[in-house]
Design goal:
Helix content is about 90%, strand content about 0%. By secondary structure, the protein is mainly alpha-helical. Helix 6 packs across helix 7.
């Protein structure tokens, strides 16, 4: 809810700036461009949420909890790291999927490790973009340096979250 409030306040602030710059027509131009963007990503967002919903009904919560739940320890963090490394797709898929896993019993450490591995080590991006453009030596060196980061994030996430929640 607070995210919607923040975004709403930003819309009001930027609408005010747009109207100050060029009147209501300038603000409506921005709204139209936003609507076009929303329509262009709507299929991806819809499919991402459908996939997340299907996972939530097809994968039992006890299985999610056992493999990547709070009590899964380091093995859950490693499993989630490998999952993030292997899972293709952009944020329209990943964030609904992670939200579904969280509701299904996944722990914050494994979820943080998953997202970190997905964003830092995505295998499909390495194969499609990084190796062809930057070379295999560069990619291998970056991976060697980065591979521990999702695990570290996964281990540190629960205590840091507890500290911030006080």
């Amino acid at each position: 809810m607070e995210a919607a409030l923040i975004i709403g306040l930003l819309v009001v602030a930027l609408s005010t700036v747009a109207m100050w710059q060029g009147g209501p027509a300038r603000a409506f131009e921005g709204y139209a461009k936003g609507g076009q963007l929303a329509l262009s990503v709507l299929p991806q967002v819809t499919l991402g949420f459908m996939l997340a919903g299907l996972i939530s009904v097809l994968v039992p919560a006890d299985l999610i909890g056992r493999w990547i739940g709070e009590g899964s320890g380091l093995s859950g963090i490693v499993i989630a790291t490998v999952g993030g490394l292997l899972t293709p797709g952009g944020p329209f898929l990943q964030f609904p999927l992670v939200a579904s896993l969280e509701r299904g019993g996944a722990g914050v450490g494994p979820l943080a490790a998953y997202l970190t591995a997905w964003s830092l080590l995505g295998l499909n991006r390495a194969i499609i973009w990084e190796i062809p453009l930057l070379g295999s030596s560069f990619t291998l060196a970056r991976w060697m340096i980065s591979i521990a980061v999702p695990v570290i994030v996964g281990v540190l996430m629960p205590p840091v979250l507890r500290l911030l929640s006080r």
